[in-house]
Design goal:
Layout: E1 2-3, H1 4-12, E2 17-19, E3 28-29, E4 32-34, E5 47-49, H2 56-66, E6 70-74, H3 86-94, E7 97-101, H4 107-125, H5 133-144, E8 148-151, E9 157-160, H6 169-177, H7 182-190, H8 193-199, E10 204-206, E11 217-224, E12 227-235, H9 242-281, H10 287-294, E13 301-309, H11 315-325, E14 336-340, E15 343-349, H12 355-366, E16 373-378, H13 387-403, E17 410-411, H14 412-430, H15 438-449, H16 453-462, H17 467-474, H18 478-491, H19 499-512
Helix pairs in contact: 2-3, 4-9, 5-9, 9-10, 13-14, 14-19, 16-17, 16-18, 16-19, 17-18
């Protein structure tokens, strides 16, 4: 079971276009049917896969007969995605979502996504993942007659088969290090293998290179449409014969389907988690129920707020951060995350010491590309019922961190005074500042006469009236401080004998004049 809006979003990442208006957010899908031209009537289901149908209008008609809420059609017709065409009009009038698949994406791949979303949503919600990738590696190895590794686009090992006792030294280093050694990576780039895998689906043979401990092997790209997802590598003494080469290519296509389903399952898990965390932070869900469904212990937690952006774009970096924060199936991750606008919120088990939260922020930041700028705020520790307050504290800490880049993530309970002052400054900047009063008068006098009255008064108040401490902060003689205090009393009445006036002056100076320069 999945929402139709979610299906549209996920299919859209693989080149599928929605023709017509976006469906309502609460439309639920529970079944999938495949068009069977031999059947007298189409099978009823929420989603119809119009396999073999080239005419989008016919696909919509079949969907009507199937009582489907969405129909998926794969066609090379240029008018298929015309939002003003006859097919789009009929789909719109019938309340059917018409989804046109990019011809570069095969029906098998498109169907894998749809079935994974609609039929496996409940399983993923319960923490179950898709089929076993190492078992798939074993199957491919048996068919091609040599040990196999499955690697991602960065040549990191996703799975490997058995029979690795026959492997060469480079293969052992790859498995033990969980990625292809750097020297071998350079060799693959020099020989053009990396470029071939990125652009072609045909298997490529790499001859042995004894100096690198590298035996012969054949690789096939794992691809979904135009997207390169990784590669399958089979150890072999020479080029594979036609039968084994076909088996390797078929295996790569099966791996592509598996990775698609893995991605879909992970995305569904993220969706469920995000919805639960969002409701918990908004106080719209019973904390005990949320803890049970999210796997949170009944201990203190902190809310961490992250904002990431690149020089040119913010939203892609936010989504990348959310993906990093939610990587991993089941309960292997310490935190639970959601996204509000451009902010990623993560609930982390963390008590009085904010160091574990800071370390989590550092690890998440290190996993992002170097050009991504990350700001972070950490709320004070709270029980599950108090996480709404911790989230507000994280927001304010995040705002402070963004104003002072280069420092460690700000923890509210350590920096609440700085947060309060920054809040006052922000409120002052967004509102109307007093045109009269002692601070305004002194500021105008400083501008007109080159004096340093406001900075001196600020230091004197911070020193609680001690001219020696104020002078040390300003880098001047204590008598200079005393002289300035007498002179500024001639400019405007200060009322320093009244506690409320001293407090008001301190707030006004912090909020309105935090950055004066000079002694």
């Amino acid at each position: 079971m999945v929402l139709l809006d979610r299906l549209v979003t996920i299919l859209g990442t693989y080149g599928t276009r929605l023709v017509g208006p976006r469906p309502t957010a609460d439309t639920v899908l529970r079944g999938v049917a495949v068009h069977d031209p031999a059947a007298p009537e189409p099978e009823e289901a929420d989603v119809l896969l119009a396999v073999g149908v080239q005419d989008p209008l016919l696909a919509v008609e079949l969907a009507e007969r199937s009582r489907a809420l969405a129909v998926v059609v794969r066609t090379a017709r240029e008018d298929a995605a015309d939002p003003h065409g006859e097919a789009a009009d009929r789909a719109r009038s019938g309340g059917i979502a018409l989804l046109v698949v990019d011809p570069a994406v095969s029906w098998g791949q498109a169907a894998g996504v749809v079935y994974g979303l609609v039929l496996e949503g409940g399983e993923t919600e319960a923490g179950r993942g898709p089929a076993d990738l190492p078992a798939l590696a074993d199957t491919i190895a048996a068919r091609v007659g040599g040990p196999v590794t499955i690697e991602d686009p960065g040549l990191r090992v996703l799975a490997y088969s058995d029979r690795q006792t026959e492997a060469d030294r480079a293969r052992w280093d790859t498995i033990l290090g969980r990625r292809v050694p750097e020297a071998v990576q350079h060799h693959l780039e020099r020989t053009g293998v990396v470029a071939h895998l990125a652009s072609s689906a045909e298997p490529v043979f790499l001859p042995p290179e004894p100096a690198l401990g590298l035996g012969g092997r054949t690789a096939a790209a794992v691809r979904v449409g135009r997207e390169f997802l990784g590669s399958v590598w089979a150890a072999c003494e020479g080029p594979l014969d036609e039968e084994r080469s076909v088996s390797l290519a078929e295996g790569a296509r099966t791996v592509a389907l598996h990775l698609l389903r893995t991605r879909v399952s992970a995305d569904l898990e993220r969706q469920v988690e995000s919805d639960l965390v969002s409701r918990l932070l908004e106080g719209a869900m019973d904390p005990t129920e949320a803890a049970g469904r999210l796997g949170l212990a009944a201990t203190q937690h902190r809310v961490v707020a992250l904002q990431a952006h690149t020089p040119d774009e913010r939203h892609s970096a936010t989504l990348m951060t959310f993906e990093r924060a939610t990587t991993g199936f089941g309960w292997s991750r310490p935190g639970r995350s959601t996204v509000f606008g451009s902010t990623v919120y993560t609930v982390l088990p963390c008590g009085a010491d904010p160091a574990p939260a800071r370390e989590w922020v550092a690890q998440t930041t290190r996993s992002l590309p170097g050009h991504v700028v990350v700001n972070a705020g950490i709320g004070a520790p709270a029980d599950l019922a108090g996480l709404s307050a911790s989230r507000r504290e994280a927001d304010e800490s995040l705002t402070l961190h963004a104003s002072r880049p280069g420092r460690a993530a700000v923890a509210y309970d350590e920096s609440w005074d700085e947060v309060l002052v920054h809040r006052l400054r922000m409120a002052s900047a967004s509102g109307r500042r007093p045109a009269d009063g002692p601070v305004a008068e002194l500021t105008r006098h400083d501008a007109a006469h080159g004096t340093h009255h406001t900075r001196t008064l600020h230091a004197w108040l911070r020193a609680q009236g001690d001219p020696n401490r104020a002078a040390e902060e300003l880098g001047v003689h204590p008598n200079t401080v005393r002289h300035r205090m007498r002179r500024m009393a001639e400019v405007t009445p200060l009322g320093l004998d009244r506690p409320r006036m001293r407090l008001a002056l301190a707030i006004a100076l912090e909020a309105n004049a935090p950055g004066e320069e000079g002694p």
